[in-house]
């Protein structure tokens, strides 16, 4: 500034020059790009991931891991775009627990148009910090799948079924009350399988807002104060960039193996691979394949709702079939094992959800293939029974011995590449062909069969 004053020289011009120079400097500082201390404030990151299809172990694992990553990356909001017909109760509760414990706000958005948040999807939406729907979507039908949806069915429910309904109602009411939404609607959607469109859900305060695209959703929630596991958070989503978090290989792998039909097939490949290896030791490939498939199938089953009674019947059935393969019993163990195996397969999945049942045609196909295996084993056993003995004393008595020397009572003979001690009641000459009458330990009793070849 001293230099500026000296530059303008005369005293009466100094105040005017100073004012002009200060005005120029202020204008320059007002330009963000030229301000020395100006720092552009980046928009808070927003992640979006999809929950599409039945809720199961794979989707639960994906949502849980995404929430952990979102917390590590200081994400402002995780948008869960949902379109689900429902799913497993255990997987749904895992997702709900992860949302309730998340320090990152979660907005469940039922979208696009035509999507639904049915059954398990209703509970996940209720647990979310923000519940949103697109136009032409619906939410509800939260009755446990094993129960009916009409009043007449509910009147005839057993005590255990009534407990399940009451538990589901209380669970959903607690989630709705936690988020400040309509808790009374829980009674309707669980007990009567009530459904709501997006506009009706908003009118009844079941959801917070309607948004037809992601940008509209972010504008609607900007500035809202959200209570999370780490305290109150004010959303700053103005102009925020949206990052799509796609499912990775782990999700895809779990989606495949936790399909009940795939898990069932893996178990069968594993079991029959091991049976083939035991029946033909040294092959290697059937045993290695069997062990891998059996372990992967067992890993998939432990994530699914299975009936241990059904699993026990399958193990007993497989054991009886394996015993039939090793020691044929003319079908007694094989057919009994097949019956136990089929019954256990039908009982294996401990859920009434159609999406998590083993296909009956698949069970029938495996049963037919196993029955065919048992028939082949029985045929081989009967054929072997009709064939003449090829080992042991009976087989020796059907062979011909050749005298290795002259002897009257005791000498040596050659039989099937081996030298034996033999006794006879008549003189024998070297080269005579002799018939074996009896095997007495390591001694053969022989008779002359034909004259010596000259």
Tell me about this structure.
With 454 residues, this protein is α/β, with parallel strands linked by helices. It has four domains: 1-40; 46-249, 2-enoyl-CoA Hydratase, Chain A, domain 1, CATH 3.90.226.10; 258-386, no CATH class; 392-450, OB fold (Dihydrolipoamide Acetyltransferase, E2P). The protein is built from 17 helices and 16 strands. It has helices at residues 2-8, 14-30, 57-72, 89-100, 120-127, 151-155, 159-178, 185-191, 198-203, 214-221, 249-257, 260-279, 285-301, 308-326, 332-347, 360-386, 392-396, and strands at 46-52, 77-83, 106-110, 116-118, 130-133, 138-140, 195-197, 209-210, 225-228, 231-234, 242-244, 400-403, 410-415, 418-423, 433-440, 443-450. A six-stranded parallel β-sheet has the order 8-5-3-2-1-11, with helices on both faces. A five-stranded mixed barrel has the order 12-13-14-16-15. Strands 4-6-7 form a three-stranded mixed β-sheet. Strand 1 (46-52), helix 3 (57-72) and strand 2 form a beta-alpha-beta unit. The radius of gyration is 41 Å and the shape is elongated.
């Amino acid at each position: 500034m001293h230099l500026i004053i000296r530059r303008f020289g005369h005293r009466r011009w100094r105040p005017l020059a100073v004012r002009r120079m200060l005005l120029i400097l202020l204008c320059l500082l007002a330009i963000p790009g030229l301000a020395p201390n100006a720092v552009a404030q980046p928009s808070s990151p927003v992640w979006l991931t999809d929950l599409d299809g039945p809720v199961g172990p794979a989707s639960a694992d994906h949502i849980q891991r995404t929430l952990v990553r979102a917390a590590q990356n200081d994400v402002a909001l995780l948008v869960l775009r949902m379109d689900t017909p429902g799913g497993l109760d255990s997987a749904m509760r895992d997702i709900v627990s992860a949302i309730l414990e998340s320090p990152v706000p979660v907005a469940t958005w039922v979208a696009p148009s035509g999507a639904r948040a049915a059954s398990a999807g209703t509970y996940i939406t209720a647990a979310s910090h923000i519940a949103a729907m697109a136009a032409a979507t619906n939410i509800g039908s939260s009755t446990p799948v094993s129960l009916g949806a009409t009043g007449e069915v509910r009147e005839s429910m057993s005590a255990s079924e009534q407990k399940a309904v009451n538990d589901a109602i209380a669970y959903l009411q607690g989630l709705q009350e936690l988020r400040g939404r309509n808790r009374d609607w829980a009674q309707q959607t669980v007990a009567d399988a009530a459904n709501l469109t997006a506009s009706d859900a908003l009118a009844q305060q079941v959801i917070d807002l309607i948004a037809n695209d992601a940008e509209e959703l972010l504008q609607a929630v900007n500035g809202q104060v959200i209570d999370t596991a780490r305290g109150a958070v004010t959303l700053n989503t103005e102009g925020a960039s949206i990052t799509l978090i796609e499912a990775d290989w782990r999700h895809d792998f779990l989606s495949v193996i936790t399909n009940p039909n795939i898990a069932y097939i893996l178990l069968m490949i594993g079991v029959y691979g091991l049976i083939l290896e035991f029946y033909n030791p040294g092959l290697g490939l059937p045993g290695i394949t069997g062990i891998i498939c059996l372990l992967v199938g067992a890993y998939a089953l432990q994530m699914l709702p299975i009936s241990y009674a059904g699993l026990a019947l399958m193990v007993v059935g497989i054991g009886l079939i394996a015993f039939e393969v090793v020691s044929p019993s003319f079908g007694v163990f094989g057919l009994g094992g097949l019956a136990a195996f089929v019954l256990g397969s039908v009982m294996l999945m401990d859920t009434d959800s159609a999406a998590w049942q083993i296909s009956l045609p698949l069970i029938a196909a495996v049963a037919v293939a196993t029955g065919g295996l048992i028939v082949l084993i029985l045929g081989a056993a009967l054929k072997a029974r009709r064939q003449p003995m090829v080992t042991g004393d009976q087989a020796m008595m059907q062979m011909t011995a050749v005298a290795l020397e002259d002897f009257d009572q005791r000498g040596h003979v050659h039989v099937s590449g081996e030298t034996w001690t033999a006794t006879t009641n008549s003189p024998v000459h070297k080269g005579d062909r002799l018939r074996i009458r009896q095997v007495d330990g390591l001694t053969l009793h022989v008779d002359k069969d034909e004259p010596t070849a000259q």
